Amino acid sequence: MRNTIFWVATAVALVVPNWLIFQKEQLLREGKSVYLRLAPVDPRSLMQGDYMILRYQISEQAERQHKRLPPSGRLVLSVDAQGVGSFRRLDSGSETLAANEIFFQYKFRKNRVQLGAESFFFQEGRATWYDRARYAELKVTSAGNAVLVGLCNDDLRRIVAPKRPSARTAQPPQAPVMSPPPRPSTSSRSSASSRPSSASSLPR
User: Fold this and answer.
1) Which residues have C-beta within 8 Å of that of residue 146, sequence separation ≥ 6?
2) What is the pLDDT averaged over residues 45-50?
């Protein structure tokens, strides 16, 4: 009996993680890239060690329009030509989507709309690179399942921090600072000519 339980537990421990990995890889292949505007968060909780707390504008918009929401469901988002998503309405269960609309799964916990990507993990020492983050890039399927891909700046360019930060790459690139031109050095020959020679100092 104990051996059976052991082998069943071992099989579950091996199968479940591999299945989750397979699902995520399939989502990344089949999902559509959607950019969601990040909402400001409490600066004290913005950085927690090696991860960043994320908050989305569409979550706040849904909360303002609907004080009480079902524990789980789908939002309907409109997506513009650049791929930026905006909240439109809740899925009633019989929605007919327009050509520029998509579903997005959510959960309602502690009076907050959660999209399943409320934190972004990064390697130690890379926090300053993500201060410029203004959008989150997610892959979304037709059913509304989503996975976080990365963070982007105002131009929707993905922010990629170096894998091994050195003294030069520990901080994000900044504009070069122009140093003043060096002062001209005085040669030993000119300094020597400015002093009276020993011959001219002798009395005649």
Assistant:
1) 27, 31, 34, 104, 105, 115, 116, 117, 138, 139, 140
2) 60
